[in-house]
Amino acid sequence: MSPSVGIAKKTVKTAVKKPVKKIRAVIRDDQNMGARNPYALADAVLGERQNWQRMGTARKKSVLEEALRRPYDELFDPKYGSPLFSRKLIGRLKGEEVRTQAGGPCSASIDHWGPVDGGVYFKDPKTDRGYLQDPVQGGVGDCYLIAACTALAWVSPQLIPSQAGPVYTYPFRNITATGGDATVTTSSDLPLDVNGNPVYGRSSDPKETWLAMVEKAYGIGKGLPGADIGHPDWDQDTGGNAVTALAQIAKAVNAAYTSTTVQTAGRTWAQMMTTIGTNKFEPANSCTVTFSKTKYPMVAFTYETAPAGVTYNSDTIVANHAYAVLGLYRYNNRCHVVLRNPYGSLAGDPALGESLASGDWTVQTSRYYQRLGQVYAAIRADSYTVNLADNDGTFALDANVFMTHFKALGYIG
C-alpha cells in the first residue's frame, strides 16, 4: 500500500531508495490521465502558498521533497508510489488490489466556498474569452481537463462561451458514470483557501474565474463526491482522458464534433503525420515550414509509467500526464512539437539538451477555428509569440523524442 500525503513536518529524513519492481508500460486506449501539480499539492500540504517564483531550482526541489516525502526524481512516475498519482493507479501498476480512491490534502485546505473577491469570468472584457496562458492545474489529478481547456482556449474559445452570472450553465455530453449527458447550473461559489484563492484549478490571473468555474461544473457533471450539494471533491477523482474531455465539452455545443486518438507506438513521426493529416495545422504542412499552429483542439499524453528507454524524473515530462499541443516548429532542420504543461509557468522545460528548440515561436495565423477547421469569424486571434528560452512549461520538443516519451496524440474536429 503506498503512503498517502499527510501534513509535512519541518524536517523529513531522506527517503531510502528501494529496488523498484520492473513494470511494463501499459498501452490502453481508455487510459485515464491524472498527475497532480506538485507545486499546488505542496502548497496544500504545507498549509500556505509558497513563493515558488523566487526559489532557485535546488530550493524548489528541496521544498517539494520535504512536503511530498519523496526524492524529487521519484515524484513523477507512479511506479515509485508518488503522491502525485492516485492509489488506484499505483496499486494496479504494482499488481496490488487497492480500493481506496485518490485522497489528499487539497480539499482539506478549503476554508470556505464563495465567489472570488473582485473576480471576473474573463479578464479581458474586450475579447471576452479564455486565453492559452490562463489555465493552471491545482493540486488534484485533473491534468486531462486543464489540458483540454487550454487546447480549447488556444484554438476554439467559442466552445467555452462567456457568461455574465450570477447563475452559470454548462452542458456536457456523455459525462456521467453511465455515459449520459449533464447540464450543470451553478452559482459563482468556488472552493477558496483562507486567503480567498481557488484551491483547485485556477487562472494565471488570480481574479479570473472561468477555468475554476468550468472545473467545478465538470466535477458536478462527473458526479464526484459532493456533487449533490454543488461542492465536488476533486481530491477523490481518479483521472480522466483528455481527448474525452475535449469531446464532452465540444459535443455539448455542437453534436457533430468527433474525437480521434492516435497512438505513437510502432510509428515514426512521418507516419504519425500521415495518420493525423497535415490539414490539422495552419498552414497545412508536415513541419516543412517554420511555424504552424494547430487548428483543431489537440492534446497529447504520456505513458502510465515509463516505457523501456524512457525516464520520467522531472516536472517537465511526467508519467500519466496530459499536455495541450500548440503546433509545430521547424528548428535546425528538425521538426518539433510545441506543448504546454498544465502545471503552468512554475514547471520548467525538459532538460533534454538538443531535443529542445530555442528562439521565438511565432504564430503566423490570426484565426480561431470551429469544427473541421472552419474559421470562427466572430473574434480574431491575437498574434502570439512563445519565447522558448523561458523555462516556463511551454516548450518545443524534437518530434522523434516526442514519439518515445508520449503515448498518444488526440484531437477533436
Describe the structure.
The structure is a single chain. The longest helix is centred in the middle third of the chain and has 13 residues, at 143-155. The protein has 8 helices and 18 strands. The strands form 6 sheets. Strands 7, 8, 9, 10, 11, 12, 17 and 18 form an 8-stranded antiparallel beta sheet that branches. It has helices at 38-46, 57-68, 87-93, 143-155, 210-222, 242-253, 269-276, 399-405; strands at 112-114, 135-136, 168-172, 182-186, 190-192, 202-203, 259-263, 281-282, 291-294, 298-302, 322-331, 334-340, 360-363, 368-369, 375-376, 384-387, 394-398, 406-412. It folds into 3 domains: 38-106, no CATH class; 109-253, no CATH class; 259-412, Cathepsin B, Chain A, CATH 3.90.70. By secondary structure, it is an alpha+beta fold. Helix 1 (38-46) crosses helix 2 and helix 4 packs across helix 6. 49% of the residues are buried.
